[in-house]
Amino acid sequence: MTQTFTAARHWQQSYDARVPADIDPDAWPSVVTMAQDAMQRYAHHTAFRCFKHSLSYADVDRQSCAFAAYLQHNGVQRGDRIAVMLPNIPAFPVAMFGILRAGAAQVNVNPTYTSQELLHQLNDAGVQTIVIIASALPTLEAILIGTTIRKVIVVNLCDTLAGAVAGGAMDIQSSMQLTRFIDALREGCTLHLTPVNLTGDDLLFLQYTGGTTGPSKGAALSHRNLIANIMQARAFLPDMFDTDGDNVVVTALPLFHVFALTINLLICFSVGVENWLIPDARNSDDLVDTLIGARPTLLTGVNTLYAALVRHPRISEVDFSRLRLAIGGGAAVLPATSAQWKHITGQEILEGYGLSETSAILCLNVMGRSKFSAAVGLPLPSTDIVLLKDDDQPAALGEAGEICAKGPQIMSGYWQKPTANANAFTTEGYFRTGDIGIFTADGLLKIVDRKKDLIIVSGFNVYPNEVEVVVASCTGVSECAVIGRPDERSGESVCLYVVKVANTTLDETMLIQYCRAHLAAYKVPREVLFLEALPKSTVGKILRRDLRALAISGASTETSSDS
């Protein structure tokens, strides 16, 4: 017999007095009506900056309308899926709002995908039209014959009607029939757009997961899902988003990822924020230059991005006096990184938590807290979270369990994956995140680890994040990651990978001694391996699965004390 349980929302006792218990997920009928409202309200405000060019909200309105008209006149109908394979450039929001205004849904694609990764995603989503950056055309061309693609719209870095002249012409060598994005905009300006009466139930995005447990799956996110998350974030952060000040956000995280897509693009657009786009956040010099010029009030990032910034030799040139909020997510923000960030900016990193399947945000910390919480915060309004043990019974307060969530921001399911959907939700309709968490007495949720990353040493649970927090606080450690290795004696042992700070004398013996002073014996790494760099995803998340593959392959790593 299945037990019925209901989240008590004990975390709401820690809400700011202005934060409501619930929000209206139907505040706008669709994301399109939300965007059009912002385009009219903030028409003369700057919407996006990139490559020393800018687009106003009125420019985005005009150009996205033109692209929508072009798509409609080329056979795109309500519910069609259109892939967007672009970096953070102005064409991304113009294309996105155009796709949505035409009544279609957007499939967000990583521009650095391999041909096989792209082939799976395009065919799984049934995509017939793709908007693609010119540099990724060879990837598409290699597998085009095996896809359902009928139309390829190619984008140059500066392709908007405002920046096209400065962007220059493209010299494209391709056997494919291509339409230039800038030509589509120009043609669309002469065409009539037929408004589509979208509702909250219409498909908005197919947001593909990382595929850590097999081929990636498309989280089907509706207009209502994203409207709900926009309203939840705005209600939870009134000092950030319900102000009349001139807000500026710097977007370094890729917009094809749900974190930046929701927070940096949709939430910020809804309240008239000026958005400085970073096409390549790996170029830390360009990122710092942008921060100097933007003087942002809001910044989002993952731990690795913040860690790179605090180490940058020119970070002191950035004026952070206007910064009111720095949000961290995607992976655990380490206390050492937050402490360094606060020393430089005066602001803590506000950690949050969410997944592609939850439209991004499930939990956030409260703005203005004086100390880093080492937690991912409180569940947002209209969000219910229960922690379930292995027998699917609720965990007691302070006891670890799988984080299972229900709320208007959570997907209806994976695209055309009935078996996966049956496994992804409890019988009560809670989405199983696969993350292990603990609630504190005041309602803060702490992530212990991913289920799949749990290391069991002689029957004792070792959570990699706990070991990584300790190691990261050791002088001489730049980055670190922990995985489990098979061990005949203990079942598994802890294996530590470390990237050292340049010119440090840190070695394996010193690290193990440090860990022994701060961790129980069974948590101390049995192996310490030094690398030049840790494998990361496109948003900067350290990929433990790649480290496991490295360990299995026995690839050579530098382990001497001279490394």
Provide structural commentary.
This protein has 17 helices and 26 strands. The chain has 563 residues and is α/β, with parallel strands linked by helices. The chain folds into 3 domains: 145 residues, Rossmann fold (3-Layer(aba) Sandwich), CATH 3.40.50; 230 residues, ANL, N-terminal domain (Rossmann fold, 3-Layer(aba) Sandwich), CATH 3.40.50; 100 residues, 2-Layer Sandwich (GMP Synthetase, Chain A, domain 3), CATH 3.30.300. The strands form 5 sheets. Strands 2-1-11-10-12-13-14-15-16 form a 9-stranded mixed β-sheet, sandwiched between helices. α3 links the parallel β3 and β4. The protein is globular and about 70 Å long.
Which CATH-level-2 architecture of the largest domain?
3-Layer(aba) Sandwich
Most strands sheet: 9 strands, mixed
**Which percent range describes the beta-strand content?**
15-25%
Q: How are the strands of the largest sheet arranged? A: 2-1-11-10-12-13-14-15-16
Amino-to-carboxy terminus distance: 58 Å
Shape: globular
Number of strands: 26
Class of secondary structure makeup: alpha/beta
What would you give as the CATH superfamily of the largest domain?
A: ANL, N-terminal domain
Question: Can you summarize this structure?
Answer:
The protein is α/β, with parallel strands linked by helices and 563 residues long.
Q: Layout of helices and strands, plus pairs?
A:
Blueprint: H1 31-41, E1 46-50, E2 53-56, H2 57-73, E3 81-85, H3 91-101, E4 105-108, H4 115-125, E5 129-133, H5 137-141, E6 151-155, H6 164-167, E7 178-180, H7 181-188, E8 203-208, E9 218-222, H8 223-236, H9 238-241, E10 248-251, H10 258-270, E11 274-277, H11 284-294, E12 298-301, H12 303-311, E13 325-328, H13 335-345, E14 349-353, E15 363-364, E16 378-379, E17 384-388, E18 401-406, E19 413-414, H14 418-424, E20 431-439, E21 445-450, E22 455-457, E23 460-462, H15 464-472, E24 477-487, E25 491-500, H16 508-518, E26 527-530, H17 544-553
Parallel strand pairs: 1-11, 3-4, 3-5, 4-8, 5-6, 6-7, 10-11, 10-12, 12-13, 13-14, 25-26
Antiparallel strand pairs: 1-2, 8-9, 9-19, 14-15, 15-16, 17-18, 18-20, 20-21, 22-23, 24-25
Helix pairs in contact: 1-2, 2-3, 2-7, 8-10, 12-13
